[in-house]
């Protein structure tokens, strides 16, 4: 019974998705869609219904996809500024943690799913979208390859800061980015972002030494 319920939710979600790209549903408001979505989900563990609320950036990106109209320049500038303002630099100004812990975080897709134990530390699932090392051959390619990231770019303060910001909130540089906002959305902790940063920059990490 539970399985059937999830199957129905997924079916209705894909219907909503398909329609928003094809043509607007006549007589159906955004409000109607939200009502159906909210009635279809129940909070489980760490997964709360707040996650159905879109951030202003996500809303602008959805509106753009549904209407086929580009986001107006001044709205875009405001969204990028808001995203940048949400970024917190590391409290102790140290950008780099432990690359070994970072590799585990990059490999892990655990966290924020209804099937996860509440309170479990989330992973970054970076390999789902990026090549990072030569040794890991299972990776996605939605994002660019990050192999030799630190080796190619060095570790000047500007590149450390850019990379921290990009991981914290990718929307600060690319509106409608497909990359999760790991810091702003509360997916990874400050220490976890430091560890992933070390994976990208440490000369001894498999990102740079292979
Ligand atoms: C769902 C896919 C997805 C996941 C998961 C993901 N990324 Fe990305 N990432 C992207 C995309 C797409 C881009 C490039 C376009 C953009 O900026 O939005 C990108 C860009 C980047 C860049 C900038 C690269 C450059 O050349 O400037 C860095 C650094 C990065 N990602 C690091 C990470 C790290 C570290 C993780 C894991 C904690 C991660 N990403 C997880 C999709 C993803």
From TrEMBL:
Q: Signal peptide position in this chain?
A: 1-22
Q: Does the keyword Kinase apply?
A: no
InterPro entries the UniProt entry points to: Cyt_c-like_dom (IPR009056), Cyt_c-like_dom_sf (IPR036909), Thiosulf_SoxX (IPR030999), Thiosulf_SoxX_II (IPR016823)
UniProt keyword Signal, yes or no: yes
Question: What would you give as a GO molecular function for this chain, any one?
Answer: heme binding
Which keywords annotate this record?
Answer: Heme, Iron, Metal-binding, Signal
Q: Where is the Cytochrome c domain?
A: 97-204
Q: What is this protein called?
A: Sulfur oxidation protein 1
User: Whose protein is this, by species?
Assistant: Advenella kashmirensis (strain DSM 17095 / LMG 22695 / WT001)
């Amino acid at each position: 019974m539970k399985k059937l319920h999830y199957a129905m939710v997924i079916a209705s979600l894909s219907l909503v998705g398909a329609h928003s790209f094809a043509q607007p549903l006549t007589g159906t408001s955004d409000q109607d869609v939200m009502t159906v979505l909210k009635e279809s989900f129940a909070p489980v563990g760490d997964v709360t219904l707040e996650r159905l609320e879109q951030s202003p950036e996500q809303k602008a990106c959805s509106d753009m996809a549904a209407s086929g109209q580009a986001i107006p320049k001044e709205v875009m500038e405001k969204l990028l500024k808001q995203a940048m303002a949400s970024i917190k630099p590391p409290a102790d100004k140290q950008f780099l943690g432990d690359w070994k812990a970072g590799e585990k975080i990059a490999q892990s897709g655990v966290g924020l799913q209804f099937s996860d134990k509440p309170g479990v530390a989330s992973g970054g699932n970076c390999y789902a979208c990026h090549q990072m090392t030569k040794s890991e051959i299972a990776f996605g390619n939605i994002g660019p390859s990050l192999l030799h990231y630190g080796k190619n770019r060095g570790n000047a303060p500007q590149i450390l800061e850019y990379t921290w910001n990009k991981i914290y909130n990718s929307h600060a540089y690319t509106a409608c980015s497909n990359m999760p906002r790991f810091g702003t959305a509360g997916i990874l902790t400050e220490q976890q972002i430091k560890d992933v940063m070390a994976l990208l920059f440490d000369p001894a990490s498999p990102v740079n030494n292979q």
